Structures are given as C-alpha cells and as structure tokens.
Amino acid sequence: MLGTIIDIHDWLDRDQQTSYEERLARDRAVLARSPSGDAARVLAWWRAMNAEGGHGVRVDRARRQAAIVLCFAGLLAGWIGGAAAFAYDGGAPINLLVVLGVLVVAPGGLALVSLLAAAARGAGWSVFGDRISVTSIGRWGLAWISRYAGGHFDLSRNAVSRTGFWQLFVFSQYFALCFFAGVLIVGLGMVAFTDLAFGWSSTLRIDAEHVYQWFATLAAPWSEWWRDAAPTLELVRESRYYRLESGSVEAQRAAALGGWWPFVLACLLVWGLVPRLVMLVLGRVRLRRALEAYLLGNAEVVALLDRLQSPDVSFTDEHETENRAPSTGVPPPLAVPTGRDTVWLGWNGALDTPTARDWLASMSAGPVIALGSLDSDAEIASRLAGLKGAKRVVVGAKGWEPPTLELTDFLRQVRSSVGESCTLVIVPVALEGGVDQASRAIFGDAIKRLADARIYVGSPA
Question: Of 265, 296, 327, which residue is a domain's last?
C-alpha cells in the first residue's frame, strides 16, 4: 500500500496542470459508485484510473525484499543462537539459566523496549519513542525502503515518520518471529536426535526453592494443562550441578535431567513466539492506520475527496442559461465545494461588493458570515462556535491584497473551531467578483506555512 500511496501523491501533483472542470468530470465518471471511508474511496478511484505506477513499484519491491532479508537473517540468527544454547558434549548439563537468559529474557527485554517506544509514540512523545526504537532490527529494512523511495519517503515529516515507525515495528517482529522459529527448529532437532540433559548452576548463593519459584512463575500460563512442562521442586533440587563434580551420571538421573525439554519448549513458545505474534498483529493494524493517515494527509488527496463528495453541480454556460437569466458582467462561478455542508466566510469585506454578491447568488452559496481584522478575538470565536461539525468551509479573502498574518491567524482560529476533519478552502476574490487567478500562487505559499493538509486554494472553473 505504501508504494500505491506514493504513486497517488505523485500523480495528483502532476495532475494539477489539468483544469478543475476536467478533473471534476473525469473523477466522477471514473468512480461512479463511491465506497464508504475516505481511504477506501481514494484507493478505489486509483484502481479505476488504472494509471501507470512510478516510484511506488520500487518501494513495494524494496519492502518485500527487506521483509525476506529480515526473515532469513532471523532464521539464521535463531539457528546459530539455538545451536550455541543447546550445545551439549555429554559432560556438564545444559545450564537452564543461560538458555532462558539468552533465548527468553534478552529477546523479551527488546520486545519491552519496542512496546515502550510504541506507547511513548501513542502518548505523543514521538521523539522519545523514535529514540528508543533505534534498538530495533527493523531499521535496516526501513533504510532500504527510504533508499528506493527516490526522495518520496522523508522521515522528517510527521505523517511519514509515523508510517516509518510502524513499518520498523512490523519489520522487527518479522525478524523476531523467524529468530524463535530457528531456535525451535534447532531445539526440536536436538531433542529428537540427541540425548540432552538440562540443569542449572550459578556461582551466586541461590537456594533451589528460589529457583523453583522463578521457574514456577514462568510455567504458570501452562502448568494446569501441560503438567510435564511444569517443573517440580524435587526436579529443581536434583538438577543443580557443579562443574567440579566428577564421575558419570546414573541413568535414572540423566533421564530426569532430559525431561526439562518440555519446559524449555513451552518457555520459547509462550514467552518468546506468542508475544511477537501479538505484537505483529498490533503493528500491522497500526501500520494500516498510519498509511491511511499518510494517504489522506496530502492536500491534493483532500481536493480529490472534495471533488468526489461535493454535489454534482455543472459550471458550464449551458447550466447557467437553464437555471438563471443571462447577466452581463457576472463572472463564472468558482469551482469550489457548494451545497448544504458548505459554510462561507467573508474576511475583511471580500464578499461584500455587488459583483461578489451576484457571483455568490449564481452558486447558491447561501448566507455569508462576515468577519474582519477589526473584530475582537472573542467576537470571532463566538461567531465561529456554531461551525463545529461543518464538513467544508470556504473563506473569501481580498485577492487584490497580499495575505497578511491576520488572515493566517484567522485560518488557524477557524481550524480550531471546526475541527481537524473539516476541509478549508481559501478563495482570493478579485474586484469583479471572481477568483483572482494571479493571486492563487501567492495565497498558496501563505497557507503552506500553516502545515495543514486539509486546506487549499480554490480554483476557477
């Protein structure tokens, strides 16, 4: 999906050269039936467009390659780690404390770090979460994607950073799952084809009772239904060994020491493999949401959704002839959202001229809320309070004047009042009542400083 998103963004950026009226007719014809959900709607439109991909193909290929490489590396690391942990030459038994420390406790610590990074990011501490996540193996795969994205996957941007974090999280789980798979393959092979003996040993003065409590805590999830994998106090006492001991181990004790393998296998499954499976499901769900946010956090995608969702109004001369009497000197309607869900705001009298009022009447724009820089902040806030829940707000500003700081502050106030999901359209109005085409680029540069993906400059039909 990441590659598809990059291709959609690129294609829509190039498509700005097409007139608004052509885009409106084309997009509605392509997507006759609109599915529910903004992301699903955009993806359905893209599939119907059947446009040729670009960098996205390379990015998706890089994602697959990174996943394969990380899975292979995880299997290899698990194979090597398992072979080292289960190495047994017939002398001293395999130390359970070392096996569990290397194969369960250490990976569990890394999993805890990943969860802390995810929790920190969810709590809004993205910088802290990103710093913790540098311990993740998945950063190799993320670097691979960034390399093949051709500059289209800038991790300094918020939406991309969120996507990158969860992609890194998922990649890390691929590696971890394959690591435990490699360990389990080696462990089962050693159990099946050799006679392993397990025990525990430590230089520290640790009582067998304390070690039993540790093992019993680990075995708590399965002790009731898999009793063979839950050690007893007698087995723990009998399994302690010292490397200075001499003499062979009697057959009965050797068989008992070999009976530890179900406990080791259960620890690897329950405390190693299962948590990583849960984390992978969590990561994929969060990655999907992050990708949708990345897709919809593009101004051209927002404009596309407006074209697909706004009422089907034709802006041609034939339409005007059928629906209203000819009027000389009245400019053509503006190709911006109209209808009951659209609210019009006039800033500093931009929509108060007679020609502007005629122009608005031709669009059936409805009443205009007039506000200006002379109004107090409390008065503006009071009049904007009723806009909560509006889907689209069109702000008319004087196109013959450059956008000022008062205008951008007003737009921020509007955004605060209407919420994040509302689309804002800024319209630079000309003296004769239409859009000031020459001012569109100037206003576009001004609103870029707002860093708001759901605001754009209106275009003439």
Answer: 296
Say which amino acid occupies 433.
Answer: G
Sequence-distant (≥ 6) Cβ neighbours of residue 77 within 8 angstroms: 175, 179, 182
49, part of any domain: no
Residue 27 maps to a domain = no
Phi and psi at residue 396, in whole multiples of 5°?
-90, 125
Does the residue 26 lie in any domain?
A: no
pLDDT in tens, 57-94: 777 887 888 889 889 999 999 999 888 888 876 667 78
Please tell me whether residues 321 and 285 are part of one structural domain: no
pTM of the predicted model over 0.70: no
Q: How many domains does the chain have?
A: 2
